[in-house]
Amino acid sequence: MKPIQVGLLGIGTVGSGVFNVLQRNQDEISRRAGRGIEITMVADLDVERARSVVGDGVQVVNDARAIIANPDIDIVIELIGGYGIARALVLEAIAAGKHVVTANKALLAVHGTEIFAAASAKGVMVAFEAAVAGGIPIIKALREGLTANRIQWIAGIINGTTNFILSEMRDKGLDFDVVLKEAQRLGYAEADPTFDIEGVDAAHKVTLMSAIAFGIPVQFDKAYVEGITKLGAADIRYAEQLGYRIKLLGITKRAEKGVELRVHPSLVPTKRLIANVEGAMNAVVVQGDAVGTTLYYGKGAGSEPTASAVIADLVDIARLHTADPEHRVPHLAFQPQTLSDAMDALPVLPMSEVVTSYYLRLSVADQAGVLAKVTGLLAEAGVSIDAVLQREADEVGGEGSTQTDLIILTHNTREGTMDAVIAQMQALPTVLAPITRIRKEELS
Questions:
Q1: Which domains does the chain have, with CATH numbers?
Q2: Averaged pLDDT, groups of 10, the chain, 444 residues long
Q3: Which of 108, 191, 353, 357 ranks highest by number of CB atoms within 10 Å?
Q4: Which runs of E-coded beta strand occur in 62-140?
Q5: Which listed residue (105, 205, 253, 440) is catalytic?
Q6: In the chain, how many H helices and how many E strands?
Q7: Has 205 been annotated as catalytic?
């Protein structure tokens, strides 16, 4: 059978990995796909660098639309990134009847509804395994492997940069700003790390997983997003003393009134496997009603790990290229016509309606009655306390210090209730600094 022809838009780190892995493992990939898969055209603004990667056997152009216009190209791989030109090119490729493979989580999290609808109308596939957790096949697991399950929740470490920073803060006792500079020096963090450290990248990814898990449209605009920039070394140390580690988690959960969709730092019990995921690695925990708890672990970024996911999508498309579109796996696992109904039945909940437990750190005056006043406010609000840790003033501020840290762990309560009681505690004259609040996820 004639090899399927692929056009590649962008041949940077991931694009060069895709080309090299496809070349290296061509025989094995062909045996699995049932036909050859060949990258025959590449578009990149740096034509000379692109030619140095692909050699003489591949046509290199500086205009992505030349690939879309080529009738011989069956699949377009989009590795440009971002929301702008990438969106236009993906929609043009779909309109031209091309299948699309992309690693662009930002594009799909924001414009996925439009893109998937266009692909369904045209009878082509949009595959995006590489958009979430790099080389970990979590999209395929959710969309196919766990299809018998009613998914209850997903929690994932899905940004390697922030996990590296938190691991270094814990291991070395350093504050965030110091470790960020080291992460940038080592290449784990970008010169502008905003998307990573503010939780936006993780929110793009968990938005896609939430849509697949619960059969709802992608709704990035409704996600709650909080990064790691305000975390201090003291909180990581206290968490460790209490039997927890702090991780930036992307969480989506089926609740009584809808779906939770949130990204924020979380205390996770040290005994959980995901709490022990260190460095730049990724991990995703999925809880299904039939299968129970499953864990997916691996490299969430990098040239060849991400290329592994891109090529897996190419093989899927090669296998299903001639199949009736009605009998392919739906983009978001559920039949498209059911998604809008599910959005009404399972709305994304505002953060104020989320129910979880909390770690609170209060910098308080070292005097009698402070603990009683604070715990009294919690009791009045109906917030149950799980544990209290009060440090000696000398330990916190040195000899002669007149203030200390009060750490409180709570049982589950509604976020809106916690917001109100934190405001009351903050107004106490004996509370001397802004209260630190970190959510706690038992993941049991």
A1: 4-134+304-330 (3.40.50.720), 138-299+344-351 (3.30.360.10), 355-440 (3.30.70.260)
A2: 94 95 96 95 96 94 97 97 94 98 97 95 96 95 96 98 96 94 91 96 98 95 97 94 97 96 98 96 98 96 95 94 76 78 84 98 93 96 94 64 91 98 97 97 94
A3: 108
A4: 75-78, 99-102, 126-127
A5: 205
A6: 17, 17
A7: yes
